[in-house]
Design brief:
Layout: E1 2-7, H1 15-27, E2 32-38, E3 53-56, H2 64-73, E4 77-82, E5 94-100, H3 105-108, H4 115-131, E6 134-137, H5 140-150, E7 157-159, H6 172-175, H7 178-195, E8 202-206, H8 215-226, E9 233-237, H9 249-254, H10 257-262, E10 263-266, H11 274-279, E11 283-286, H12 295-302, E12 307-309
Length: about 300
């Protein structure tokens, strides 16, 4: 039986967390012995991880502590997999290294980073690309960008497109049975009651709050249309904690009374709540400047929520 070790410390993050959850739920049914490197106490929040062998590491992503401790946490295995570019630089006991580079936003928008962030991004993304045995990426666009910025050969990169979690986002089964539809509508109401603050009419943004998500311009656009449609709200579902250069959305909203009244920010939505939030929206708005893939449009369309997206 092949032994695989996966760095799963980002399982609670936005896009990479979604990627990891989908991957692990499918891998656990395969004939592999899988161990996961996770943050302490994560099992309290992501309970199904108990099905794996867990190795705990309390070290922030991108930190010196991470680089010093991570190699010693990796057991002897056939494959070590990292779902991001923060690979260990020291020797490890794995026979092969596999990395997923979702995009090279940090290199494409290098000027937006601080001095040491620029050095870190250039060094580690290139290291991850050059020193891994194989690279997975999520789109042909990301593949072309990785080649452009790291100079690795095309045949080293495998494109495997992301997919949505069908356990969460599955409307087709409901359409075959009226009772199921009514049951789902009842569940939907309970979910909305739990979130307390979802209005009747709203546009929806889902994603992290980094600058390339173009959230500031979305707020400006919403303010303009609100003059003609004053019963509509904007709901933002996203995370900014522990993200480099993330927008402090609370500070942005505090600057204008209009934004405080008409924009609802949810930073703690559960995975199982997302389909209901999508279903209740007029449309998902996805105005990013740059994306390697982008989960939210697929998730929205899977539950028949229209999508307004930028041409990226």
């Amino acid at each position: 039986m092949k032994k695989i070790c996966i760095d799963a410390r980002m399982i609670e993050s936005a896009g990479i967390g979604t990627y990891l959850k989908s991957l692990l739920k499918n891998l656990k049914s395969k004939n592999f012995k899988i161990s996961l490197i996770v943050k302490p106490r994560v099992i309290e929040r992501v309970k199904w991880l108990k099905n794996f062998d867990l190795i705990y590491l309390d070290a922030p992503i991108y930190s010196i502590k991470e680089q010093l401790l991570l190699p010693f946490k990796i057991p002897k295995c056939d494959l070590f997999f990292v779902p991001h570019f923060n690979i260990p630089l020291l020797p490890i006991r794995a026979k092969k290294r596999l990395v997923t580079i979702h995009d090279v936003y940090h290199l494409a928008f290098l000027s937006s980073l601080k001095f040491f962030e620029k050095i870190y991004a250039k060094y580690f993304i290139c290291k991850a690309a050059l020193h891994s045995d194989k690279i997975i990426t999520v789109s042909e666009f990301s593949k072309s960008e990785i080649i452009k910025y790291t100079k690795v050969k095309s045949d080293k990169i495998e494109v495997i497109h992301n997919a949505i979690d069908r356990d969460l986002f599955n409307i087709k089964k409901d359409e075959k049975n009226t009772d199921n539809i009514e049951k789902k509508q009842s569940e939907n109401k309970k979910k909305i009651d739990k979130l307390k603050i979802l209005p009747k009419k709203y546009f929806l943004f889902v994603g992290n709050l980094k600058p390339h998500k173009n959230l500031i311009n979305l707020l400006k656009a919403f303010e303009k249309i609100h003059k003609d449609f004053n019963d509509i709200f904007l709901v933002i579902v996203g995370k900014s904690a522990n993200l480099i250069n993330a927008i402090d959305i609370q500070k942005v909203l505090e600057k204008k009374e209009f934004l405080r009244k008409k924009v609802i920010f949810i930073d703690n939505a559960l995975d199982e709540e997302l389909p209901y939030i999508y279903r209740g929206a007029i449309s998902l708005v996805f105005p990013s400047y740059y994306e390697g893939f982008g989960y939210p449009p697929l998730e929205a369309m899977s539950v028949k929520c229209p999508v307004i997206a930028s041409n990226v």
